Structures are given as C-alpha cells and as structure tokens.
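Ops channel
N.P.: pipeline sanity check, posting one input/output pair.
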C-alpha cells in the first residue's frame, strides 16, 4: 500500500471539509475521535467540523469525554442561564480533576466562545448544548444533587445525604472505596440506587429548563460510578465496558431528552469512538461507544471519524496525576497506518473509508497509534499502537503530518487518584 497512492482530500482550509460533510449525510450521530488527549489540531478541526454540522445540518449538541457536572456548567454558560458566569476562562476553571488540560485549554475556549455566540442568535429550542459523557464524577455529582435538592425535595435530598454518608469513610478516594469493598459486602450500591429512584420521581421548575434532567443525570453518574470503581479494582475488561456502556446510555438519554429530531456530535478518543470489533480490543472482550452506537442506531445513522498524526508534540503526563508536560511525539513506527500515510505524501488529508476498502492489506489489522493522558515517547512502541482494520473501524480518517500540543489553561489539579489499570489511560 505504501507505494500505491489512493484518493484523498488535502486539508488546508475549512472548505476542504465539504466531502466529509457530504459523506456524513443524514446521520444522526457523528463521533469525532483523537489519537491523543493533548493535540491542538484535533481540537481545532473537530471544532470546525462541529460548527458546520450545527449550522448546516442542525445538530443539537456536543457530548464529550468529560465529566457531567463540569460540562454542564459550560452548557449553562453557552445557553445564557441565570448565574452561569460571564468569562469563559473562569467557567473552564471547573475542570480541576487531572488531566485538567483535556478541557481547560484555549482550543476548547474558542469552541465555547463560538457556541455562546451561535446560541445568542437562536431561540431556546435551537440552542446547541455541551455535555459530558464520562463516569468519574462520583462525589461531584453527589454534592450537586444534595445542594439542589435541599431547596426542592427534602425526601430526595435525604436519600442523597445517606449515599454521601456511606462514602464518607473512604475520604473521597475511589481507589480506597474499591479496595475496601472488593471482598467485604460493605459497598454503597443500595444507597445510590435508592437515591437514583428518589431523584427520578422528583420534578420541579426553575429558570433552567434542563435542571431536572441535570439532577437525574448526576444520580445516574453516581450509581454507575459506584459500580465502575468496584469493577476497576478487580481489573479485566469489565470496568472499561461499564464506562463505555455508561457513555452510551448517557448519549441515549441526551437524544431522548432533546426529542426525536435530535442529532449528536461526540468528541472522544479514537479508542472509544472507533468500532472496537475491528481492533484487538475485541479479542479481550472489550467494546466501546462507537460499536454500541452502530449496533443500536445502524451504520447509516452513525459516522465514526478517526484522527491521527505522524509526528509533533503533545501534552501528557509521565504517570497518572503527574505534572503535565509538553512532549515530543516521534515519527510513527514503521509499518503503522500513520507511517503509511506519511510515505504517500506529507499532506494533511481526509480519507474516506469507501475509497480505501479495496486496497491490499487494509482488510488486515495494522498498527494505529494511540496516545493516552499517560505517555512516554521512549516506550511508545510497546503499548501505543492498536492493531486495527482501518476502513471498518472508521467511516473516515483525518490525518495530520505534524501536530502541536494543545494550549492548557494553567491551574492546579485535584483528585488524581484513579488507579492506572490500563497502560494507555484513554
């Protein structure tokens, strides 16, 4: 393949996205990936694609690989809800859980600024939203539930306080909780389920028309996070699958909440949005949100777009919770997907899967680079390449020959206590 060029669209300006937008067609769900959590081009071009999908095809919201409470604060800002803040950089300070740079960066600030300006020109029903799909925010979600319900529903608030009290002996450390409950039946599952049931019965009306949904989603996060942390300490594929199942369920709830015509844009790592059935993840019993979405909504209604690069720089940490660093990303490994694309041309490019399915070798798994929040360039050949059938894993792929690191907002992080169970930390 390396010596056999194929059809692609050079990517230099936003209008070069036309073929991709046409390929997306009438899909209801578009998932935009990334090969790292710290590369500027992935964010800026996902923003460009998202703008066009919102403006030209009426997409309803962006859902990202971030925690629900923090992302909902951004959603309130861009929709102009009362007491939601004014300065974007100030609101982005809510992202204080390590790795802070994933969402507290200037590239995301530019996206948020555009979303706010777009929404200011539309009526409430036409405003685009911004939500988090992830499952990590156990205590933050519990705190938000109690604060809200104390003023609205005493019985539901009491159920939430009982759940918090159950977790208190573990000092808000999910690893401590998971280890303590691994072999002794002293977990808090019943408490969070009771809280979830109480919250689902709760209804109120405020200046924020999404407040009931927000409270219910925080309760769902708490219930699933409790399960996730217990599964995580046992290892294996179950915790990964629980996490992606939660993200898929959250996407389902968002689409249902926004109505039958709602359409979703998802921003997550390639390892989540690229169909796991066409990687070695499937060999280990793992699935992901990209696979689940295709299975539920049908391939015609879902478009999966992978991202990658040959070399450059990235923001990451040498270990979980370590200070963020700007690191060099070395040239891609010989025989990898990225090295093949580089050998064809150094153009940044858009590749549609339908244009490469016929090429020899691409129906077999080849190495495809994936960089997590934990990264060390010296060792990337030992764990940073996912064997992948490219044209089946994605519907399209966006390649950059050289990329630069994302530009973080500077802040202190908190809560970097999740155990390093998977070497890639996606």
């Amino acid at each position: 393949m390396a010596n056999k060029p194929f059809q692609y669209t050079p990517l230099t300006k936003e209008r070069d996205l036309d073929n991709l937008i046409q390929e997306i067609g009438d899909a209801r769900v578009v998932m935009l990936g990334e090969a790292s959590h710290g590369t500027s081009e992935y964010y800026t071009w996902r923003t460009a694609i998202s703008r066009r999908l919102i403006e030209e095809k009426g997409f309803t919201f962006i859902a990202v690989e971030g925690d629900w409470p923090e992302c909902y604060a951004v959603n309130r800002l861009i929709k102009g809800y009362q007491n939601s803040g004014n300065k974007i950089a100030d609101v982005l300070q809510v992202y204080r859980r390590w790795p802070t740079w994933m969402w507290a960066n200037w590239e995301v600030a530019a996206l948020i600024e555009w979303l706010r300006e777009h929404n200011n020109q539309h009526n409430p029903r036409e405003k685009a939203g911004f939500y988090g799909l992830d499952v990590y925010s156990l205590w933050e979600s519990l705190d938000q539930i109690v604060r809200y319900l104390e003023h609205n529903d005493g019985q539901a608030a009491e159920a939430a306080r009982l759940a918090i009290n159950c977790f208190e002996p573990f000092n808000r450390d999910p690893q401590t909780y998971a280890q303590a409950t691994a072999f002794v039946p002293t977990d808090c599952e019943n408490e969070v389920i009771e809280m979830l049931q109480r919250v689902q019965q709760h209804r109120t009306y405020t200046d924020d028309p999404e407040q009931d949904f927000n409270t219910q989603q925080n309760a769902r996060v708490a219930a699933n996070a409790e399960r996730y942390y217990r599964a995580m300490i046992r290892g294996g594929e179950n915790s990964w699958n629980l996490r992606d199942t939660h993200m898929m369920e959250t996407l389902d709830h968002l689409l249902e909440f926004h109505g039958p015509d709602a359409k979703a844009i998802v921003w997550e790592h390639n390892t989540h949005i690229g169909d796991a059935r066409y990687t070695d993840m499937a060999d280990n019993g793992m699935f992901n949100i990209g696979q689940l979405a295709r299975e539920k909504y049908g391939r015609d209604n879902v478009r999966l777009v992978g991202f990658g690069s040959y070399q450059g720089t990235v923001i990451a940490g040498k270990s979980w919770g370590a200070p963020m660093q700007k690191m060099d990303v070395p040239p891609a490994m010989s025989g990898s997907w990225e090295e093949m694309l580089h050998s064809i041309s150094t153009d940044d490019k858009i590749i549609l899967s339908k244009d490469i399915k016929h090429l020899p070798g691409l129906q077999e798994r080849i190495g495809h680079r994936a960089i997590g929040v934990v990264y060390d360039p010296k060792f990337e050949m030992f764990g940073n390449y996912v064997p992948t059938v490219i044209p089946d894993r994605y519907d399209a792929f966006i390649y950059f020959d050289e990329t630069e690191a994302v530009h973080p907002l500077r802040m202190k992080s908190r809560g970097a206590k999740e155990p390093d169970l998977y070497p890639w930390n996606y």
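N.P.: looks fine end to end. Confidence is low (pLDDT under 50) at residues 415-424.
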